[in-house]
Write a structure and sequence with these properties.
five-stranded mixed beta sheet; 21 helices
Length: 499
Amino acid sequence: MLIVDDEEIEREGMAQFIPWNEFGIELAGTARNGAEGLEKIGTLNPDIVLTDIKMPVMDGIELIKRGKETFPDVEWVVLSGYGEYEFTSRAMEQGIRYYLLKPCDEGQIEEVLSKVKKGMEEKQCKMREEEEYRKKTAKVFSSAKEQMFRELLLEKEKSMPFFFQEWEEQRESWQLLAFYSEQGFDGIEQFVVKNMLSELLRDGRYILSASIGNQLIFLIGEKETERAKGAAVRIVRECERLNGQGIRALLSEPGNLEEIPSLYRQIQWLFRVRETVGDILLLQYELFRERQENMQGLVDYGRIQETEDYLSLAFEVCLAFMKFSLNGYTYEQKMAAAEWILQALYGENMHWESGEKSENGLMGELVKYLAERKGVAEMVSSEVEKAQEMLRAVFVHIADPQLSLSFLAKKVLYRNEDYLGRIFQRVQGERFSVFLPRVRMVLAERLFSYRPELKIGTVAEMVGYAPDGQYFSKAFRKIFHMTPTQFKERVIQERAENR
């Protein structure tokens, strides 16, 4: 406590003769006026100031006013005499609640100081409760933000989270920086990575973080890109040095907030190809973009990933190979493309089992690889396995006009035709004679959707019909209730409207 009073007898008398220790108070010092008192508050840091009101140089009112601005936690007790109501009322205007009337005795001082201490304790208790509540609220909000960010990355959250609004006004691009560990990150390791990244980025500027599987993902501003690259490499090396943990850093391209799910797909793609690019500590999507863009539109990775049955998988692979042919791919280019599909989806290289070095053998091999990785070829019965073999053969020979159940039985699979027909119908739920034209037309529909400018005869030949297109057009109309020409015109019109 600090005593401020211009009357020496009053000041020193209170300082020396009142047993402050018995009140649980330590007397820090005294001051002769408000100016000296303000200075000593700054050096002694008292919790309580007992001040006279009427003093020279700086009175108690001015001391309280200035003191509250600079030292808001100090509690004030005012000493006032009879006839000083004007000063007292001005002190009340400053929010002062505790007063002592001169002359005051020890009992009065003890009573007032007891109230001051009680008020301070209540205030501190309230502050602790508020701080605890603030921490809990911040923790809950932080957890909620992380959960919403995670769901946005995984495209489970379709609408933009409300807390993104504070960053939209910044008009900058954003990137995703991810760290991958084979063993995953436990709580301590997550804390270490987050702490290091905060220290290495300017103003600790990563905006959000989320943990998904063995990945730790951060949202950063594009302005932090160069710092982030250096920080990522340093974090990877430091983690390896500290605990021998091998991790990789993955960096997306810049994009706006609405593109965050798309940026995370870039991270996932980098994650899948990580083992095919050597010991690069930081994989950046922009360095692989050209190779990926060469395959853009030819391979629908999303559809392949979403397939849940062998038929859909074989269909998508067959369609991709048709697009390769339309783009003039050589056999070697198709082989490279097949390897790239497996790398992009699963980060694996193909090991060719078939001795047949042909496009048909290549496509069938890729279907088998993908079916195994997706689990659609596991734990199947012998009948299902034979039906899958038939499906694979259908798409391999789809362009052959002779393709039929009899053709498969005699020329490809070397089994009894009736036997294969019964198996196919039991497994696929429809007769082969119904299945084949339907699949051929759906392939044609997807090819026209890909390139509506394709000639009808070209697509007809690709799906096993005569190049004159007459029979093909009748079959197409039977399935889609419009001619190929009408369908192509609709695709062109829809593209024009969406531009």
